[in-house]
Specification:
The protein has one domain. It contains two helices and five strands, in the order αβββββα. The mean pLDDT is about 95. Strand 3 and strand 4 form a beta hairpin. It is an alpha+beta fold and about 110 residues long. The longest helix has 18 residues.
Length: about 110
């Protein structure tokens, strides 16, 4: 199921702003943060350039936010080493994705940023 248009528009703006602020400009040749939307999920990625200077940047999944249209809430998921998703246990669902982005930034368990 796809995100409702108004929710998609809002979350795209929030995520674009988040990604733009996460990494200082002078370091974006070494690391960047991006996102993708698929269905009702928004995935946050860390991207790094190829170590040998050849090929494209690699993406590693950091967090995923899943929208439940019935409740109007977002759930937060973390990826394991195989990029399989698991419901994050340390916070509740929220109608405001900012709450979950704050949890990813705080990362009290070290599961998102290491």
């Amino acid at each position: 199921m796809a995100l409702p248009n108004e929710v998609r528009t809002e979350v795209e703006g929030v995520m674009q702003e988040y990604c733009a602020k996460k990494i200082p400009l002078q370091h974006r040749d070494k690391i960047r943060v991006s996102f993708g939307i698929r269905g009702n999920s928004v995935t946050l990625y860390e991207e790094r350039p190829p170590w040998d200077g050849r090929g494209g940047w690699t993406k590693g999944a950091i967090a995923q936010f899943r929208y439940d249209e019935e409740s109007g809430e977002w759930d937060l998921y973390s990826a394991d080493r195989n990029e399989k998703w698991h419901l994050y246990f340390d916070t509740d669902a929220s109608e405001d994705i900012h709450d979950l982005l704050d949890e990813v930034d705080d990362d009290p368990t070290g599961i998102f940023w290491g």
